[in-house]
């Protein structure tokens, strides 16, 4: 059976586990090695389960722990865009034996899964989302740090069994919050982050396509709250006739600790 858990989520650090009981992959490692291992242990996931790292982009809240992780686990391959791999190589003291593998149009197989990448619009060198198909034909799709949703992203999310989607900020909290104007424009821009409104507007289409499990991720600490993001999502789905607990399951990824392990 497939397993997915958000270990950490937000600008303080991101890390997600996807796979099965005995093998899986880590998507992003934006926390310290110790914090990662503690989170895995609390979820009863042995470190030996991790067969590969998949990195969405080079921002520190997505790669902070990669250098120490690879020093202690040099045989685990790292998949990302060529631009992200170049950044990691230039800014980390990595062993020459570490495998940095570009993932582009082709799918790769790790931990009994086939993983595909798709482009995401973010102010990074080359940001990616990932779509994973398990050996028992379950599909998990991860899309975080998005300035907006486009047709290609939606195509990769549709018909998944589980979707992790960014719901970063509440528009009013951002507008009237303490951030400087330049940062507000960056967050709300086409290459920034996804608002509660835009995330929730996409959810009925996802549920209609067959998505049954949704994880809201990368909530802003200053410009959002879990209850607000959750209410936006649930209201949008209620308005379209979908019932929580019947037609779909909804989780909000916590910032500083693992969320619920979803097994399906």
Which shape, going by the Cα principal axes? globular
- Percentage beta strand: 15-25%
Total number of β-strand segments? Answer: 14
The arrangement of helices and strands along the chain is: EEEHEHHEHEEEEEHEHHHEHEE
Number of helices: 9
Intertermini distance: 6 Å
The overall pLDDT, averaged over residues, is 97
* Low-pLDDT residue spans: none
Could you tell me the radius of gyration in angstroms? 17 Å
Strand order of the largest sheet: 6-5-4-3-2-1-14
- Main sheet overview: 7 strands, mixed
Oligomeric form: single chain
Counting helices, strands and paired strands, the structural category is alpha/beta
Question: Percent helix among the residues?
Answer: 25-40%
Sum this structure up briefly.
The protein has 264 residues and is α/β, with parallel strands linked by helices. The chain contains nine helices and 14 strands.
Q: Would you spell out the secondary-structure blueprint of this structure?
A:
Layout lengths: L2 E6 L6 E5 L4 E4 L5 H10 L7 E5 L5 H4 L2 H7 L5 E3 L1 H10 L8 E3 L5 E3 L2 E7 L8 E7 L4 E5 L7 H7 L4 E5 L4 H6 L4 H8 L7 H14 L3 E5 L8 H14 L9 E4 L9 E2 L1
Parallel strand pairs: 3-4, 4-5, 5-6, 10-11, 11-12, 12-13
Antiparallel strand pairs: 1-2, 1-14, 2-3, 7-8, 8-9, 9-10
Helix pairs in contact: 8-9
């Amino acid at each position: 059976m497939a397993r997915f858990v958000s270990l950490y989520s937000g600008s303080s650090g991101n890390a997600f586990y996807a796979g099965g009981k005995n093998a899986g992959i880590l998507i992003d490692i934006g926390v310290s090695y110790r914090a990662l291992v503690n989170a895995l242990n609390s979820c009863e996931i042995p470190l030996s389960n991790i067969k590969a790292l998949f990195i969405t982009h080079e921002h520190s809240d997505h790669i902070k722990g990669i250098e120490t992780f690879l020093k202690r686990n040099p045989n685990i391959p790292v998949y990302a865009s060529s631009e992200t791999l170049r950044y990691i190589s230039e800014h980390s003291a990595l062993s020459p034996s570490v495998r940095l593998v570009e993932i582009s149009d082709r799918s790769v197989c790790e931990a009994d899964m086939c993983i595909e990448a798709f482009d995401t619009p973010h102010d990074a060198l080359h940001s990616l989302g990932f779509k994973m198909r398990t050996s028992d034909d379950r599909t998990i799709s991860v899309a975080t740090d998005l300035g907006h949703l486009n047709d290609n992203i939606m195509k990769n999310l549709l018909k998944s069994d589980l979707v992790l989607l960014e719901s970063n900020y509440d528009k009013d909290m951002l507008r009237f919050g303490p951030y400087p104007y330049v940062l507000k424009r960056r967050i709300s821009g086409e290459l920034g982050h996804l608002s509660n409104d835009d995330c929730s507007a996409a959810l009925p289409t996802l549920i209609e396509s067959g998505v049954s499990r949704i994880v809201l991720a990368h909530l802003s600490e200053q410009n959002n709250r879990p209850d607000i993001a959750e209410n936006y999502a649930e209201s949008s789905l209620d308005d379209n006739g979908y019932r929580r607990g019947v037609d779909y399951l909804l989780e909000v990824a916590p910032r500083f600790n693992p969320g619920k392990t979803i097994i399906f």
